[in-house]
Design goal:
Number of domains: 2
Largest sheet: 3 strands, antiparallel
CATH architecture of the largest domain: Up-down Bundle
Helix content: 55-70%
GO cellular component, one term: membrane
Radius of gyration: 46 Å
Number of strands: 9
Strand content: under 5%
Protein name: FZ domain-containing protein
Organism: Allomyces macrogynus (strain ATCC 38327)
Keywords: Disulfide bond, Membrane, Signal, Transmembrane, Transmembrane helix
Membrane topology: Multi-pass membrane protein
Shape: elongated
CATH class of the largest domain: Mainly Alpha
CATH superfamily of the largest domain: Rhodopsin 7-helix transmembrane proteins
């Protein structure tokens, strides 16, 4: 019999796998704990970033970027990391400001080309506007402040700088609305007037703007942006001479060069005429001496062009010893800043007046002897000559003491538009127009006398009468000296010689008529150009009228000078009239040579003079009684 214990089966041991499982789980938990902590930290950082880049409220989105945020600062701040305000915003800003949204609102204000032009032409404005834009839009955040503390705002002086420096450039771009009105209540509310306001008082205005070259056709003003010059926009100016820039490239330079060449030819031919009447016999007596004085004045008038060689810039632009070529790149020449211009302009004033008054004297002398049969001018020649020399001296001294001599256009200095009428055109008009009318009267008077003489000759021939003629007794005649004189009459001799005498007088006086006509045409063309065309251009340039501003805008847009010249063509002096007025003056010596110098009689007298000088015998028999006059 077995026992009970023997009957029970042996105990089977339980499996211990759960212990291993628990151990593995514990190990994994220990390993994953750092990863979970890191993930939690990352999630927290992302959550914080989401708070920083919170999209601004509708009130902030609708506000102008020039209007600063006025909401209270939170405890969270951020560091500015953009490009627009780099170097300006160096302080923490509220984390509630969305920098991307701000940049999106700022970018439409100006195109990159406009901003570059603003930086190149108005660097002080560009700097002031950028400071205002940044300091007003990005107030200073106090990291130690509470949620109710307000951020530090911009100073009033920053706003005033924009008003001071940006009015002209923004008007130029038709953007006056970009200039803040510092006295406006809405702007005043956004400005901090305390001593702790945001400003950059220690940083010079304009120093934060990169150096950008001026747009094409404009040059940098070495005197700075704030120098007020008619041809400057900020620190970028039209190069001297200003008028050349408003025409296709090289057009005015070509005209000036051609004018200089023609004037040189005129001066040489005028000198030939002057030497002819100075050296040849019987040319220094009245009335031939009138032509001598006229030729002397004309020679020096035309010879003034030699002051403009080798380059007209030496009389067009102010002298500047610091410049590489000795000329100021911007300022045009005046009596005060260019000695050569002052000398040339003074000489031109004197000799142009002198030339015209002696030409008028010549016409008046012929009129008085032919129409009035008076030798008054010959009898009082010394007094009348003194008047002819004093006249130009008076107006020249006035121009000198009034400092009216300056460069306006062409290749020479003359007189400013402001004084041109009073010192030049009005006095000259008082000489030229009456002289032309007087000579027309003289011309028709002689023509009428010629016709009467012809009729008288026919009547005398038909009656067989050879003793009567024009004028009866006491009539005036044409003297051997070349003018009509009361000492001689046409009453003696036969009709046929008297007829030839009058016809010859008519042939001689056409020279004076041509002289009066050329003076009238030259003066009228020059006056029309100077008074109407050039004065309108100078006024528009000085006042920076709309067409001038449009030309600058065209150059800023990087267009060529030829393209921009077409856009302002109606507002600048007409080029054909400029050519006409310049060439009429330049060819004055050539015309006078054709009228008075291109004569066979003068060539014969020169041949005789050279023959006599070289030891030959001078032929003193002068058969031409009119050679003495012309």
């Amino acid at each position: 019999m077995t026992t009970s214990s023997a009957r029970q089966p042996a105990a089977v041991p339980r499996p211990r796998h759960w212990v291993a499982l628990v151990a593995v789980i514990a190990v994994l938990a220990l390993l994953l704990a750092p990863l979970v902590a890191a993930q939690k930290s990352t999630a927290t950082t992302a959550s914080q970033r989401a708070v920083v880049t919170t999209v601004p409220t509708s009130k902030q989105a609708d506000s102008s970027p020039l209007t600063p945020a006025t909401s209270g600062s939170s405890a969270q701040c951020q560091t500015y990391s953009g490009e627009l305000c780099a170097g300006i915003v160096t302080y923490p800003i509220p984390a509630t400001i969305d920098l991307k949204a701000m940049a999106a609102k700022v970018s439409p204000l100006m195109t990159p080309l406009e901003m570059e032009a603003l930086q190149s032409m108005y660097p002080m404005c560009a700097d002031a506007f950028r400071r205002w834009l940044c300091l007003s839009s990005l107030p200073k955040c106090d990291p130690q402040g509470t949620s109710t503390s307000a951020p530090t705002r911009v100073c009033l002086g920053v706003c005033n700088d924009v008003e001071t420096y940006c009015r002209e450039p923004f008007d130029l771009r038709n953007r006056p609305s970009l200039v803040p009105k510092c006295s406006d209540p809405t702007v005043q509310a956004a400005i901090d007037k305390s001593s702790s306001c945001l400003a950059m008082a220690n940083v010079t205005l304009g120093s934060l703007v990169k150096d950008v070259p001026c747009p094409q056709a404009l040059v940098r003003n070495p005197r700075g942006e704030r120098t007020k010059i008619d041809t400057c926009f900020g620190q970028c100016c039209l190069p001297c001479p200003a008028i050349n820039n408003f025409y296709p490239s090289g057009q005015i330079e070509t005209l000036n060069f051609a004018s200089m060449i023609v004037r040189c030819v005129s001066s040489v031919l005028s000198m030939y005429l002057m030497m002819s009447y100075l050296l040849l016999p019987n040319k220094r007596k009245h009335p031939a001496i009138i032509v001598l004085f006229f030729a002397v004045a004309l020679t020096f008038w035309m010879g003034n062009i030699w002051f403009s060689f080798p380059t007209p810039r030496q009389v067009q632009c102010a002298t500047d010893s610091s410049s590489p070529n000795g000329f100021d790149p911007i300022i045009q020449a005046t009596h005060a800043n260019n000695v050569l211009c002052g000398i040339q302009g003074t000489f031109l004033m004197f000799f142009s007046h002198l030339t015209i008054i002696w030409a008028t004297y010549l016409v008046l002398n012929l009129h008085m002897t032919a129409v009035w049969r008076s030798n008054f001018l010959e009898r009082h020649f010394h007094v009348t000559t003194l008047v002819c020399w004093i006249w130009p001296i008076v107006f020249t001294l006035l121009a000198y003491f009034l400092e009216a001599v300056q460069y306006e256009s062409g290749a020479t200095c003359l007189i400013s538009n402001e004084w041109a009428n009073r010192l030049f055109f009005y006095p000259v008009a008082c000489l030229i127009f009456p002289s032309f009318v007087l000579h027309l009267v003289t011309f028709f008077k002689i023509a009428r006398a010629s016709m009467r003489e012809s009729a008288s000759q026919e009547m005398s021939t038909s009656r067989g009468d050879t003793t009567t003629g024009y004028g009866g007794s006491g009539g005036g005649g044409y003297s051997g000296g070349g003018g009509y004189s009361g000492s001689q009459t046409m009453s003696g001799g036969t009709g046929k010689p008297r007829g030839r005498h009058v016809v010859k007088a008519v042939k001689v006086q056409w020279r004076a008529l041509m002289l009066a006509f050329i003076m009238l045409i030259t003066f009228s063309a020059f006056w029309l150009f100077y008074w109407f065309e050039l004065q309108r251009f100078t006024t528009g340039k000085r006042g920076k009228e709309a067409w001038f501003v449009e030309w600058v805008k065209c150059m800023i847009e990087d267009k060529s000078q030829d393209e921009c010249a077409q856009s302002v063509k109606p507002h600048v002096p007409a080029f054909p009239l400029m050519v006409l007025s310049d060439m009429m003056v330049a060819t004055g010596g050539i015309w006078i040579f054709v009228i008075f110098g291109a004569r066979l009689s003068i060539i014969y007298e020169w041949r005789t003079w050279f023959a006599d000088t070289c030891g030959g015998r001078r032929n003193r028999n002068r058969n031409d009684p009119y050679a003495n006059y012309t």
